[in-house]
Design brief:
The protein is an alpha+beta fold. It is about 50% helix and about 10% strand. A hairpin with a 2-residue loop joins strand 3 and strand 4. Helix 6 packs across helix 10 and helix 6 packs across helix 14. The longest helix is centred in the middle third of the chain and has 23 residues. It is globular and about 65 Å long. It holds the Pfam family Arabinose_bd.
Amino acid sequence: MSTSHKLPPWDFRRGIATARVLVQLGLDKGAGLDALLQQTGITRQMLDDPKAEIEATQEIQLIRNLLSTLGHPPELGLEAGQRYRLTTYGLWGYAVLSSPTLGDAIHLTRRMLNQTFSLTRNVAVQEGDQIIITHMDEHLPPDVRQFIIDRDRAAITVLQREILGRPLSYTAFEMKHSEPEPGMAARYTDWVGIRPIFGCQQHRSIFPVALMSEPLPQAEPHTARLCEEMCRKLVEARSSRTGVAAAVRDRLLRTPGHIPDMEEISSEMHMTSRTLRRHLTAEGATFRALLEEVRSTLATELMANARLTHAEIAQRLGYADVTTFIEAFRRWKGVPPSEYRRQQGLRTSATRASAFRTLVITPPGHEAASSNDAEADAA
């Protein structure tokens, strides 16, 4: 479809993965591909290109096609949202999964909204001991509004479950629309884990502020395995490994947010660190080289595809502080990370976040991280 008209401010470009999710939902329910793609400007070739991007207006037209083709079933938004898994978001999903706390994950999500495929606008505030997130949909076309609010809120609950390893304990879950038929009301309750309150002035999700500082387990098994496999393939593409070296490198990738040391890995492999070092030497490798290989690959990819700050990358790669990471990056690339970003034309972490604003909530340490990144830019 033509996008030559002036686009609304929330219509930032997004990855093709969201279109693939919606198209697959339609195909699974018997819709034809041509009917789903009509007037969207999305082609079959784009669906097969992981680097393709679309405008939000194209996604909205795809949603219109999906609804009209399937007869506007009321549960379709919920079903769509439940298909957006953490791994749908690529390396950004790994970055979220490796966040130390729920507050850090929410902070990253609001900054990187253009990688979450959300079309709603969200505002998070703290009132007393509660966090209140308001999901605003007034800017959306009325004919797709219900689908999108259901899709986006369902997708959020899926992400929360995957990064927490369990459902988030909501205090209340409020919806603007009137109470639906009993069967649909039950579906909402099953999805949220608490009976929603219907007929409210706004769509709001409310949960205890104490959850913001809760450490994330990085332990949802299925998602963690998929993230590990994605990162393994990424590193494998840069440098092929076999034998003990491959096993060590894969172990370095297995636990998002925690890169183990040599003693930990050798213990897991039921050998001493001296024996492990001897095996690696026989294969022409060293533990330090494997660790540098993993860290340098993930650092450049997180910079390009998750757009984390230097401090956030350092944290996820197991560095004690951002200065040590910057020194390592200079050793790998010959330039500090700030200069590398400029050379590669990469945007900094200050990406478009207007659709999700945090008014009061700032996870501990982020002010320091910003200061450290300013120092890195001056390096």
